[in-house]
Specification:
The chain has 4 helices and 5 strands; from the N terminus they run αβββαββαα. By secondary structure, the chain is of the alpha+beta class. It has one domain: HIT-like (HIT family, subunit A). The chain has a 5-stranded antiparallel sheet with strand order 1-2-3-5-4, with helices on one face.
Amino acid sequence: MNAGTPGSADAVSRDAASCVFCAQEGGTVWWRDAWLRVIEAGEPDYPGFCRLVWNAHVTEFSDLSNDEREHLIRALAAVERALRATFNPDKINIASLGNLVAHQHWHVIPRFADDPHFPAPVWAARRREPSARQHAARVAAAAGVGAAVRDALQREFG
């Protein structure tokens, strides 16, 4: 899996000057407000995989104010609803790791029982090759996920 970040575990970016999410968008932006952006992760095995990236360089969730945390959680829920409506997945995985990029960001991933890694995390060893037919259907559905995410967030935040 491409983590979407340069470097290795030995070179974790802790400061804004060397942070990939401070220096660039991190992917195609589907939605943005003053506090965060939702980007397409661009993971070929996982159509619809996206990230919520906090715009300011903040390392830990607990560093956010109560209002900021509430905003982030509402955005995560809206994105999850959009992905569920678009893909009807078996599960949505939501993860915040920050092991390679010490900048608050959340992975939101539609999961299916027949995906390449299920039931393990998408970063685990691959268990199977995806069905070409199923994967093509998910890629086709993903063509509308950016609009679905924008609509869901517009409904959530007005």
